[in-house]
Amino acid sequence: MDKQPFVSIIVPIYKVPEEFLRHSIESCINQTFKDIEIVLVDDGSPDECGNICDEYAAQDSRIKVIHKENGGLVSARNAGFDIVTGDWHMYMDGDDWIDENTCEKLLGNIKEFPDVNIVFWNCIQELGEKSIKGKWEWHCDESRKLYKDSECQELSRNVLIYKSGIATAYSKLINTNYARQYGIKHDSRLRQGMEGTEFSLRVFYHAKKTLFIKEYFNHYRYNDTSISKRIDEKNTQYLMDCINVMAEDVAKMLHNKPFENALYQRIVYALIAVAMSTYFHPNSLDNAWTAARKFANIINQNDICRKAISYTSLTELDTQRRIALLFMKVRLYILLKPIAIAKQKLLKRGYYNY
User: Fold this and answer.
1) What are the C-alpha distances in Å from 316 to residues 269, 304, 306, 312, 321?
2) d(CA 333, CA 306)
3) Residue 101 and residue 58: Cα distance in Å, rounded?
4) φ and ψ at 56, to 5 degrees?
5) To bridge 321 with a disulfide, which of 9, 115, 242, 317 should be the other Cys (CB 3.0-4.6 Å)?
6) Which segments of the chain does DSSP mark as H helices, in order?
């Protein structure tokens, strides 16, 4: 590449099915705006993913490939960030995709608002043949809105509110100089879990100007073979690592009640998620009593989890999670099992906007 690209797209890759990976890469290659750099990070994937990346790099000079030992999602994203040369950069997972006019539309907006630090937008959930809007969607009546100074800190607080829909590393275009000035990369102490939430918390907090575009450029593919969907108790520790680092962030940023309350609510959402996807998942090998004991241990061993359950109001959650939190407050963890079973049945019927 002869000149510095305008946009760099970082794609971490590990055990992605071939058809998904090719779709993802080609959605970047086929951007109508061509002044881009595509950084594919093969995180030690033991399959053909690395070879597929090399195949595309041989065909397109805009593609850079990093082959590294497996270190998890955070290390893969950081490896990509460390070598980007674009004025702006974004993240995209290896089984997702973006619309072909994404970069072109973003460029048009940046020309109008050249001094913004971040541009963000909405994401569509893709569940088989069904496309779902609303789960990760920033609620704004305007088609485009500029946030300044303290409003950016309020965006940071909203990262911790699950329904705000702005807690992912993707669906954001970040000014590279801004990110390097404030050291905004993923926290290297983390591996995965809520790494995007922790990252987004800092992304918005330090910004002076942030632009929201009410469009859906990103497509999140529900892939039950992805690392975030596997039943693995190690994910609980990864999640707790994220929670502890976010607690540090909140203490450093604004140690006040609005941030604390939002953090506690986010922790409750995370605990319910790990209960549903790991301990009480219908495919778990543990019986309900064993699962309840293990889940209780997680809460008992982490003071911040106990505080979150105690301080979070039932009225702050939707119906499903309200019931789950009630059982957690009275320590009837075993009753989370039927909720987990019901959730999986709803997923199979195409209900994903929960």
Assistant:
1) 11, 18, 17, 7, 9
2) 13
3) 24
4) -70, -35
5) 317
6) 18-29, 49-59, 73-83, 102-112, 150-159, 176-181, 195-205, 234-253, 257-274, 288-300, 303-311, 319-329, 336-348
299-301-304-307 Cα dihedral, nearest 10 degrees? 60
User: Which ranges in 44-93 belong to alpha helices (H)?
Assistant: 49-59, 73-83
**Which DSSP letter does residue 147 get?**
E
Q: How far is residue 170's CA from residue 312's CA, in Å, rounded to a whole number?
A: 28
Q: What is the model's pLDDT at position 133?
A: 81
Q: How many CB atoms lie within 10 A of CB 253?
A: 16
The CA-to-CA distance between both ends of the chain, in Å, stands at 44
The Cα 267–Cα 199 span in angstroms is: 16
Give the up-direction half-sphere exposure of residue 218: CA atoms within 13 A in the CB hemisphere.
Answer: 29
The model's pLDDT over 208-217, given as tens digits with 9 standing for 90+, comes to 999 999 999 9
Look at residue 181 and give its three-state secondary structure.
Answer: helix
**Cβ neighbours around 19 below 10 Å, total:** 9
Q: Is the dihedral of CA 243, 244, 245, 246 positive or negative?
A: positive
Which residues of the chain carry a pLDDT beneath 50? 1, 226-229
Give tens-digit pLDDT for 138-152. 999 999 999 999 999
- Residue whose C-alpha is closest to residue 113's, from 153, 78, 145: 145
pTM of the model: 0.91
